[in-house]
């Protein structure tokens, strides 16, 4: 729950967050901290950058605005689960079957970018070591 207050018209408004009834401040802090511990910020940033790049590339491939891109889902975790680049390339090309522009450069670049990522579901906690 948030409360917005302003003490005079020239001062900036402040937002105060209150803990839900029946919970202690420490419980809320622990819940908020779990997300940052579970997923490494660097990996999340890489994933976000990749998603933004994919959207940019798809707008070029389909020659349209972001909102007009055909409904398709390039699941990075699914691509990471596949054993070979050939399987990954086939999957992405299958998703882009209705694209009238050449997609080979996009697919090649996407596969290169995916190689540096980890699955989000298997990311080690911040205090744990990643598997060899």
Write the layout of secondary structure elements.
Layout: E1 2-5, E2 14-17, H1 25-38, H2 41-61, H3 76-81, H4 85-95, H5 104-115
Antiparallel strand pairs: 1-2
Entry keywords:
mainly alpha; disordered N terminus; two-stranded antiparallel sheet; 132 residues
Q: Order of strands in the sheet with the most strands?
A: 1-2
Question: In sequence order, what are the helices and strands, one letter per element?
Answer: EEHHHHH
Strand content: 5-15%
Q: Helicity range of the residues?
A: 40-55%
Q: Please tally the helical runs, counting DSSP H or I stretches of 4 or more residues.
A: 5
**Class per helix and strand makeup:** mainly alpha
- Count the E strands: 2
Radius of gyration: 21 Å
> For the terminal residues, how far apart are their CA atoms?
43 Å
Low-confidence stretches: 1-10
Q: Taking all residues together, what is the mean pLDDT?
A: 76
**Main beta sheet, described?**
2 strands, antiparallel
Tertiary shape? globular
Concise account of the structure shown:
With 132 residues, the protein is mainly alpha-helical. It has helices at residues 25-38, 41-61, 76-81, 85-95, 104-115, and strands spanning 2-5, 14-17.
Describe the structure.
This protein is mainly α and 132 residues long. The chain has five helices and two strands, in the order ββααααα. The protein has helices at 25-38, 41-61, 76-81, 85-95, 104-115, and strands at 2-5, 14-17. It has a two-stranded antiparallel ribbon. A hairpin with an 8-residue loop joins strand 1 (2-5) and strand 2 (14-17). Helix 4 crosses helix 5.
